[in-house]
Amino acid sequence: MTVPADIVAIGTQAEAMLADLGAISAEPQRLVRLYLSPEHRKAADLIGSWMRDAGMSVSEDALGTVRGHWRPEKKRRLLIGSHVDTVIDAGKYDGPLGVVAGVLAVRELAARNADLPFGIDVLAFGDEEGSRFRTTLAGSSASAGAFDRSSLAFPDRSGISLADAIRAYGHSVDDIPAAAYAPENVVAYVEVHIEQGPVLEAKGLPLGIVTGIVGQSRMRVVVLGEAGHAGTVPMQMRQDALVGAAELIMLIEQTALENQDDGMVATVGRIEASPGATNVIPGRVGFSLEFRSSSDAKRKAAIELIKSDAQRISVKRRLEFAFEPFHETDTTACTPALQDLMSKAITSLGYQPIRLPSGAGHDAQMMARLCPMAMLFVRCRGGISHNPAEFASESDMGLSVAALVRFIEALAAKVSAGEAT
Ligand code: GLV
Ligand code: MN
Ligand code: MN
Question: What is the position in ligand 1's atom list of the atom closest to the CA of 292?
């Protein structure tokens, strides 16, 4: 189907904005934009300038979330958001597309002088990936009134705590409670995001309606053994923490493989062995562990199983295992009535409205604690994400903004008619 030129032009604008944001990186050779870093500041200022150009007033909350307010005089607000932080060596679409789509949707509505029964806040959150601190969704959790203050003590890799980083960024942790929206003033939250998977491309469709976001559990696992001389300690007498960790990691993979009915995935993405020398038996290992599954009960059961596996390995190898959980979100459904509105918006553009779950985490998960929530997925090439090869086409991105505008108009009609979302 040929996409109308005016819609492609919006996508071309989105691509230009994403390219500008994608150039803001801590490293010249790869995209790295961490929460509360100088690059976050630059990106936030750029986004603020786009918001002003689109007719919004701009503020920033204590977590560094940039907020563009369109029609600020209206008490009831529709929230459109996503994140601007990245993974290490990221693509430029994961996160920023949702912010850019929000800005461009407001620009469209302002150009039409749309009169809606609510104002719109576009939210650019700074911490969805958890790449700097062990937090994830810090900004959206504050907006949703669900911020966990214990995370303020989390250090980054150089020992700077989240609280100190917030101060260095120019905000006060005392203002965090004021970042929370009052639920009665919020109509809904909607987020546009690349799919980060291959389903839409395989179906030949540009857009998809998200049915829900899988739950996840994240933790750090610490294994304690005894460091020793790699040349003198016989194999049977070692307390090698890294070999114990390796044995457990194989069982983690096996557990996820055995739970494929619920699409369980488990990942160890980071591991450090100490003291970290060729000729020293590793005495201490720390690794990250993440489980995701659409069944919260099975995910939690899998973690218990891994803990009992660790117990067995600890006896066999004379090691100690400690599990330090730092993030837990249950599977979150997108609001059915809003899924239906999104479906109508996509249908009105001439496309089949496919529904699919999200295996990736999103700020929408947290915002669902505050208000009704919807997500729109945009096809990405090869399903590739968390990778610099990430790509979404201008016409697909233009369609996502057009669908978002139609969704907002349909929501406005519903709100005006006094119907619940
Ligand atoms: C966010 O990208 C996540 O799902 O880890
Ligand atoms: Mn994302
Ligand atoms: Mn991501």
Answer: 4
- Determine which residue's CA is closest to atom 1 belonging to ligand 1: 361
For ligand 1, whether the C-beta of 129 sits within 6 Å is: yes
Contact, 361 vs 267, CB < 8 A? no
Residues 200 and 377 sit within 8 Å (Cβ to Cβ): yes
266-273 average pLDDT score: 97
How many whole angstroms from 62 Cα to the centroid of ligand 1?
23
From the CA of 358, which ligand is nearest? 1
Q: What one-character DSSP code corresponds to residue 69?
A: E
Question: Which of 35, 89, 129, 214 gets mutated to test ligand 1 (max ligand atoms within 8 A of its CB)?
Answer: 129
> Closest by alpha carbon to 187, among 78, 98, 89?
78
Please count the residues of the chain: 421
What are the start-end ranges of the E strands in 93-200? 119-125, 186-194
In whole angstroms, what separates CA 82 from the centre of its chain? 8
Contact 67, 58 (CB under 8 A): yes
Q: Is 246 left (phi over 0), alpha (psi -120 to 50) or beta?
A: alpha
* C-alpha gyration radius of the chain: 23
C-alpha neighbours within 13 Å on the C-beta side of residue 326: 22
Instruction: State whether the beta carbon of 363 lies less than 6 angstroms from ligand 1.
Output: no
Coil, strand or helix at 308: helix
DSSP for 6-40? HHHHHHHHHHHHHHHHHT--SSSSS----TTSHHH
- Which pLDDT belongs to residue 419? 84
Q: Which atom of ligand 1 is nearest to the CA of 360?
A: 4
Ligand 1 atom with the shortest distance to the CA of 87: 2
Q: Please name which of 69, 145, 128, 16 lies closest in space to residue 364, comparing C-alpha atoms.
A: 128
The three-class DSSP label of residue 85 is coil
Q: List pLDDT tens digits, range 101-135.
A: 999 999 999 999 999 999 999 999 999 999 999 88
Overall pTM surpassing 0.85 (yes/no): yes
Read off the pLDDT of residues 328-381 as tens digits, 9 standing for 90 and up.
Answer: 999 999 999 999 999 999 999 999 999 999 999 999 999 999 999 999 999 999
If pLDDT is split at 50, 70 and 90, which confidence band does 1 have?
Answer: confident
| Listed residue (71, 78, 76) closest to 57, CA to CA | 71
